[in-house]
Design goal:
The complex is a heterodimer of chains A (527) and B (347). Chain A contains 19 helices and 21 strands. Chain A is α+β, with helices and mostly antiparallel strands and 527 residues long. Chain B has helices at 56-66, 154-167, 182-192, 203-214, 230-233, 268-273, 288-298, 310-319, 335-345, and strands spanning 10-13, 16-19, 24-26, 34-36, 51-54, 73-76, 82-85, 88-94, 102-108, 111-115, 137-142, 173-176, 199-201, 222-224, 237-240, 257-261, 278-280, 302-308, 323-326. In chain B, strand 18, helix 8 and strand 19 (323-326) form a beta-alpha-beta unit. Classes of the chains: A alpha+beta (527), B alpha/beta (347). Chains A and B meet through helix 1, helix 2, helix 5 and helix 6 of A and helix 6 and helix 8 of B.
């Protein structure tokens, strides 16, 4: 437990991706089985025991600590689990500190009435950091800034295999993953798993460099719309089906409507959308359905899920990934015609003979549900990862807006000494009729290192107020911001939220009075 | 019971704690005629007093920091030596806080009051250890006067620092440490742990590190960080005052891994506020357990709590049958910021 607690502690304070990978990979290298396997399960959300209730833990601590002192401490610390971890009176030598595996295995088999006694004994045996990690573990949700994908990336580094190989076996192995570690350390074969209904890593596209277009032969490529939903994989067979996000996280539970329609035996690649009366709804509607464990009947009715398919990886037991795109497309169309499933349609192929025709199609597409185009070589096999060449995404030109810099915040890691996160606003009429700025978004990318230094200098020279890591600045700098879309938002003061905003150009030259007004932005809202 | 009421001769005033029969102040926060100074931190030792009485080490620190402003006359009093001032007998006991830090022992008409200044109970290789003396009134600090503040053993924190230095050979580990006491203690603890590579220091730490060495505290090889190139600093440990951590100064370092050495690092929200990637819980103040232990050791029937989380310690003492009250002293507990600023203002 000690090594795991230190890992969580360090991860919780570490912002840099590479540093997190180093911390995890070093831990996996040093920790024994089955501890490291349970640690991996904890980091990837795959532990399975009834989580402890905060009230139970509070009850334990109140038997040990003066309630007045506990109350003041909780007010100061602000987090129940942390307060308990810090204030718990130590009993040196009371017990042997437990190993992680012991905690996980005993909790998994403990009855509800046994667990307070177990928890109390372990709190006595652990040190403050150990207690903190232990309480996070048993109350569910580590929240140390590590995604399942990042943990799997660290695992891949351990064995010098690719992330795709890890993802390929991931849904067929279970905690504490002994056979996975044996494989990664060269002491065993790659785990053999039942591939039906398992996630297969996706094939990804590269952004198209338009200058390169002339060198490509249009006859070699097929074109499809790029839909503004989320990329998913639907794996169905034997009367069961699973839905995975592009990173291999299972999201089946959130989409019972779609899963009900998946009564076939195939693995499909497509875009998850919300569709009403044959029309694709804005991305914002789809977001209502994401990141949920349960969905209500009302949500199913208001935001019906739909899958628009563009590829088929398996039909029955047959692996189609080695075949070319054109062959797979024939199989896909035949499959769809034969099954005719509800809630699932095909993403159409677009007709074109010359690049200019395709360009015209791209420029004329005004529906907000279309982000641009996909280009795929007709002979391309389905290869995991992002191979250079066979697939391109050709996004519609971004929307842009001239905004005024209002606040700047220090970044993390390498950027911790630099004001690198910018909140910007547009003009609107204030209560007194005079123009006022209202924040409309926040961006932290799209500039070069040199520009960042100059922006940082400008922020420091124009600060009017400080709030911790944030500085308010005197309105004086116009930022031209690019973004993919904008929709209504109740959470923002301006009533709008931008999708993927980034700094397009820094308009050192432009007077702030000439920046855009809020109504200009509102006109771009997709209804 | 002492023959006189303690509050009749040691009083809280606008300038600080005032000993009336001796006509002197303990750690006054504004210039006075005669000041008894417990230690060299800026919230206790202020410049501009006409006469200053302190340990020789504290006087040396004040001279280094304030030069001619350190005070009109500087009068040294060693630990254990006695001075009579207006019938009040004064002596110093080691407080274990920083080099030269002392508890001021005041005796008048059979009543003994000890003013702790700041203190800690654990061993510190850079200063004399805290000594216990029984008394009628103990005037204690309470910087970490909440039971969530229990500092772990120093060795574990230093081990975490050394692990990070080994784990990220391409980065510099930048340790934020207050320039008086904390920086030298971190250095000495690293040396104790067997770390013998050169340590790189921010210019603001140089003066007091030199002074510690002159006064016999071994710190090993120290190099200025300011002139060193990025390649030289990769994989090395660099010390700087906390205010330099997120300042432009730190840009000269290769992808710095920011560590911060302070008792406040025990609480995650405070550590995150500081932007620490590696919080090190190293404090020169007593933690909750040490405060409680000290109340028990000095066995004073009455306790005055000066600064920090007074109410919790007053509550605790009350439950133990000790008469306890909080003294509202102005200008305390700002040591961290002020000490750092004072150093950086110097070239």
């Amino acid at each position: 437990m000690k090594a795991f607690a230190e890992l969580l502690d360090r991860l919780s304070y570490t912002a840099g991706r590479n540093a997190k990978l180093t911390l995890m990979a070093d831990y996996f290298r040093a920790a024994p089985d089955p501890d490291r396997g349970y640690a991996l399960a904890a980091l990837t959300g795959r532990l399975d025991f009834a989580t402890a209730k905060p009230a139970m833990i509070r009850g334990l601590v109140e038997q040990r600590v003066d309630p007045v002192l506990f109350g003041w401490s909780y007010d100061y610390v602000g987090d129940m689990a942390e307060t308990v971890a810090l204030i718990w009176p130590e009993r040196p030598g009371a017990n042997r500190p437990p190993e992680l595996a012991e905690v996980v295995e005993r909790l998994a088999s403990a009855s509800r009435s046994d667990s307070p006694g177990l928890v109390e004994g372990w709190l006595d045996a652990l040190d403050a950091t150990g207690r903190w990690a232990f309480l996070k573990l048993i109350t569910g949700g580590l929240r140390v800034g590590v995604s399942a994908r990042l943990a799997k990336t660290a695992l891949a580094q351990l064995g010098d295999v690719t992330l795709e190989e890890i993802e390929e076996v991931w849904h067929g192995v279970k905690p504490p993953f002994a056979e996975v570690f044996a494989w990664l350390e060269g002491e065993g074969p790659m785990p053999r798993i039942d591939l039906r209904r398992a996630f297969r890593p996706l094939m990804l596209a590269n952004p198209l460099d338009e200058a390169e277009l002339a060198k490509l032969d249009p006859a070699d490529y097929r074109a499809e719309w790029k839909w503004d939903g989320i990329r998913v994989q639907l794996a169905a067979g034997g009367g069961e089906a699973r839905l995975f996000s592009r990173s291999g996280d299972e999201i089946t539970q959130a989409f019972p409507d779609l899963m009900e329609a998946a009564q076939f035996d195939a693995v499909l690649d497509g875009e998850l959308l919300v569709m009403r009366d044959g029309t694709v709804a804005p991305f914002n509607d789809l977001q209502q359905r994401l990141n949920r464990k349960r969905v209500t009947a009302k949500m199913l009715q208001d935001f019906p899920a739909h899958l628009r398919v563009y590829d088929i990886l398996f039909h029955g037991e047959e692996d189609l990934r080695e075949q070319g795109f054109d062959e797979r497309r024939v199989r896909l169309e035949a499959w769809h015609a034969a099954e005719a499933p509800a809630r699932i349609d095909l993403s159409p192929l677009l007709n074109f003979a010359r690049w200019e025709e395709l360009q015209a199609l791209r420029d004329s597409a005004r529906e907000r549900s279309i982000e641009g185009l996909m280009l795929k070589r007709g002979d391309s096999a389905y290869v995991a990862g992002r191979p250079k060449g066979p697939w391109f995404k050709w996004k519609r030109d971004a929307l842009t807006l001239d905004t005024v810099l209002m606040y700047a915040q220090r970044g993390h890691g390498k950027r911790s000494s630099l004001y690198s996160d910018y909140t910007f606003g547009t003009w609107r009429d204030g209560a007194d009729g005079a123009p006022e700025l209202v924040p409309v978004g926040k961006a932290y990318s799209g500039f070069t290192d040199e520009e960042l230094l100059r922006l940082d200098k400008w922020v420091r020279a124009n600060t009017t107020e400080r709030f911790g890591p944030v500085r308010a600045v005197k309105p004086g700098l116009v930022l031209e911001v690019a973004f993919d879309a904008v929709h209504r938002s109740k959470r923002h003061k301006s009533g709008v939220a931008m999708r993927f905003p980034r700094i397009h150009r820094i308009r050192w030259d432009k007077p702030i009075e000439d920046a855009d007004r809020l109504p200009t932005l509102e006109k771009l809202i997709e209804e | 019971m002492p023959s006189v009421l303690p509050e009749s001769w040691l009083k809280v005033t606008e300038r600080g704690l005032y000993c009336e029969p001796g006509d002197f102040y303990v750690d006054p926060h504004r210039p006075v005629g005669r000041a008894v100074v417990t230690h060299g931190h800026a919230d206790h030792a202020r410049p501009g007093n006409r006469a200053v009485l302190a340990t020789p080490e504290t006087l040396a620190i004040m001279r280094r920091r304030y030069g001619a402003e350190a005070g009109g006359t500087l009068e040294p009093l060693r630990y254990g030596e006695r001075r009579e001032i207006g019938g009040v007998r004064l002596s110093f006991l080691p407080a274990g806080h920083v080099l030269g830090s002392a508890q001021a022992v005041l005796e008048w008409q059979g009543c003994r009051i000890i003013v702790s200044g700041d203190y800690k109970r654990r061993t510190d290789p850079t200063c004399a250890g805290f000594e216990v003396m029984a008394c009628d009134v103990y005037v204690t600090e309470a910087t970490f006067g909440l039971p969530v503040f229990r500092h772990p053993p120093d060795e574990g924190e230093i081990a975490m620092l050394l692990t990070a230095q080994w784990q990220f050979p391409e980065r510099a580990v930048l340790v934020g440490a207050y320039s008086l006491g904390k920086a030298q203690r971190v250095i000495a603890l690293l040396r104790q742990a067997g770390y013998d590579r050169p340590l790189y220091i921010h210019g603001a730490l140089q003066g007091l590190c030199d002074l510690y060495s002159e006064l016999g505290v071994e710190l090993g090889e120290l190099r200025p960080a300011t002139g060193a190139g990025k390649a030289e600093l990769a994989g090395e440990i660099v010390l700087a005052p906390p205010s330099a951590l997120n300042d432009r100064w730190s840009r000269r370092l290769p992808d710095p891994l920011t560590a911060m050495a302070s008792g406040w690092m025990r609480v995650r929200a405070r550590a995150k506020q500081r932007g620490a990637e590696l919080p090190l819980i190293l404090s020169d103040h007593a933690d909750w357990d040490e405060l409680v232990q000290t109340l028990e050791d000095v066995a004073a029937p009455e306790v005055w709590v000066t600064h920090g989380n007074e109410e919790a310690l007053v509550h605790y003492a009350g439950a133990k049958g000790i008469r306890a009250r909080a003294l509202a002293l102005i200008g305390r507990g700002e040591e961290e910021q002020e000490a750092a600023t004072a150093e950086e203002a110097a070239p």
